[in-house]
Amino acid sequence: MPLDHTFKHPRRPDLEYNLRWVYRHMIEEYARHNGHADLLRERSAGATGD
C-alpha cells in the first residue's frame, strides 16, 4: 500500500488520514513511551544510559 493512500476515520468521516501520517504518529508515540521508560529505569536503578 503506498504511503499516500488515504482513508477516513471510522467515527469521524470528515477526517481523512494517509498511511504516512499513521506511521509517523506510531513512531512518535513509540519514541515518547521509550523515553518515559528510560526515565523510570534510571530513577529506579540510578544508572544512566548512552
TrEMBL record:
It comes from the Bacteria. SUPFAM superfamilies: DinB/YfiT-like putative metalloenzymes. This is Mini-circle protein. The lineage of its organism: Bacteria, Bacillati, Actinomycetota, Actinomycetes, Mycobacteriales.
